[in-house]
Amino acid sequence: MFSRRKFITTSATGLASIILLPTVNSFANENSQYKRKSAKLKLRFALASDIHYGQPGTNFEVNTANMVKWLNDDHAKNHLDMVIINGDLVHNRPDLLPEIKTQYLDKLNVPYQTIPGNHDFADARVWKNVFNYEDRYTIDHGDTAFVLANTADTKGAYVCPDNSFLKTSLDKFADKKIVFVVLHIPPVKWQKNEGFLDCPETIDLLHAYPNVKAVFHGHDHLLDGVRYTNKLPHFFDSHIGGDWGTDYRGYRIVEVNEQNEIYTYQVNASQNPKLNSNKL
C-alpha cells in the first residue's frame, strides 16, 4: 500500500528498525488508522516545533490553539504517550513562555515535554522557572529513553549541545533498546551556508552509541523529511507557526511496536495543501 519506505536495521542490544511511512493526512481518513505490521504499540509520541507564539503579523494564537486541538484529536483516536515540543515555542519573547504554557500547552490531554529553540531566548534558569525542569534532561520510558538538550543561548545564538551531558546520558542509557535524541537545531550542516550548527564532536558521540536510533530536529520550517549522518536518521517536523515554511502546518508521529520496530510519518494536520488523498 505504501509506495515509499526505507528500512534501517542496526544490531544493538536488540533488533530495531525504522520504517519511514509517506506523509499522510491524519484527519482525512476515518479514525486516523494506518496499517502496521503489528497493531500493538508500546510507545507512540508526537513531535511538534516552531510555534513562534507572539510573532507579530502572524495568527500565533490560532496556530497554537490548532496544534492543541490536532494533538488532542490524535490522542483521542490513536492514543499518544507523550508530546514533545521541540523548540521555538515563542518568538523572541521569553516573557510569553508562562502564557503559552498555561493557556495552551497545559490543555493538552497527554503529558508533554519541551526544549528551547533559538527564538525562546532561554537557558536552564528560564526553562526551570516556567516548566520546572532545565534545558537539558532525559526521559526514561521502559526500554526506550530520550535525551533532550538546548542548542541556543539567551540571545538566540546557536550553540552546540553540551557534549558532556550527552555522553553522560548516553552512557547511562547504554543498556536501553532504543534511545532518541531531541535537538532543536541540527548539529551538522549537510549543505554549505545552511543555517544549522557544525558540531563534529556531537555527531561522533551520536554515532558511537548503536542504540541511538534517531535524532529529531525543528528549526527549518521547510523540512519535513529525513537526512542522514552515516546511517543515523535525522527527522524534521515542518512547523506549527511562524511566517515561513511548508504550505501546511503539521507534526511528526513516532510509533514503537513490541518488536522494537520504529514507524514514523509526518502529519499534514492543517490539510493545506493535501499531500495524500488516498483512502487507507
UniProtKB/TrEMBL annotation:
Pfam family, one: Metallophos
Top-rank taxon: Bacteria
UniProt xrefs under InterPro entries: Calcineurin-like_PHP, Metallo-depent_PP-like, STPP_CPPED1
Residue ranges of domain Calcineurin-like phosphoesterase in the record: 43-221
Keywords of this entry: Signal
Gene3D superfamilies in the record: 3.60.21.10
rRNA-binding recorded as keyword: no
Keyword Kinase set for record: no
Extent of the signal sequence: 1-28
Official protein name in the record: Metallophosphoesterase
Organism, as annotated: Mucilaginibacter aquariorum
